[in-house]
Amino acid sequence: MRFLVKLISEKPEVIPINYQYPLSAAIYRIIAKGDADYANFLHEKGYGKKFKFFSFSQITCPFKIEADRLLLQSNELSFQITFHLPKAAESFIKGLFQSEKLDIADRISKGRFTVQSIKTLPSPLESYKENEITQVVLRPLSPVVAGLMKDNGKYDFLPPDDPRFAESLIYNWRSKIAACYDDTTASKAILQIALQPIKQPFKSRLISIKSGKPEATQIRGWINFKMQVTGERRFIDLLLNAGAGLYNAQGMGCVSISQKM
């Protein structure tokens, strides 16, 4: 399920340019206030291989960049957030966020917001049967991260013009299916991803996670392309709800449908 969240503040705020981790932390705190067991499950365990099965988009708000800060030019901003949960959980999620306070902060600055509204966005695949093979074109709403894990546990990040980029996304997608269903279902699933450049060269963003902390790391994601995706409707729903590629719960790989085939 997908929601549009609108935030409002008393004045235009200053937030970190690497706002993804602070925003993710703020989302966890909101969930924890409403359901501590669910929040702890997401944070500590997740679904199999520590998949959280939620993601969120980049923020939408006019801003100016000053060093490592975003100077927001409006006291309102919005973003999309997605969860792979049954439709029956829709009211639960909306209730958690409605009128909540939310800080996007690090050790230097703190943006303080109130959730002005949270609106359910309709699924464009409602008319398709769950097991129907479906083909859609997806566009990233936040950078998509693909990588190969090295022996030290870190990733070599791949660009979209590397043939292993799409292979990595499919491997990750199949792993999510295994975590959500089972290994047999995942191994038999028909999954295809074909990249469609919007503009060459591909554009990337380097994002710092946990900036200023000993465990800080940097990840590289890509944004200016589309993906023609083929699979059963239920698996495409999973991709839409849980995100594509790596670091979804940190706001990476949030995607939406650009076109149905």
Report on this model:
There is one protein chain. With 261 residues, the chain is an alpha+beta fold. The protein folds into two domains: 2-121, Alpha-Beta Plaits (2-Layer Sandwich), CATH 3.30.70.1890; 133-260, 2-Layer Sandwich (Alpha-Beta Plaits), CATH 3.30.70.1900. Helices cover 26% and strands 35% of the residues. It contains six helices and 16 strands. The strands form five sheets. Strands 3-6-1-8-7 form a five-stranded antiparallel beta sheet. A four-stranded antiparallel beta sheet has the order 12-15-9-16. Helix 1 (20-34) runs antiparallel to helix 2 (36-45) and helix 1 (20-34) crosses helix 3 (90-97). The longest helix has 18 residues, at 163-180. The protein is globular and about 50 Å long.
What can be said about this structure in brief?
This protein has 261 residues and is of the alpha+beta class.
Question: How are the secondary structure elements laid out?
Answer:
Blueprint: E1 2-8, E2 14-16, H1 20-34, H2 36-45, E3 54-56, E4 63-66, E5 69-72, E6 76-83, H3 90-97, E7 101-105, E8 110-121, E9 133-140, E10 147-149, E11 155-157, H4 163-180, H5 183-188, E12 192-197, E13 204-209, E14 217-222, E15 225-232, H6 233-242, E16 255-260
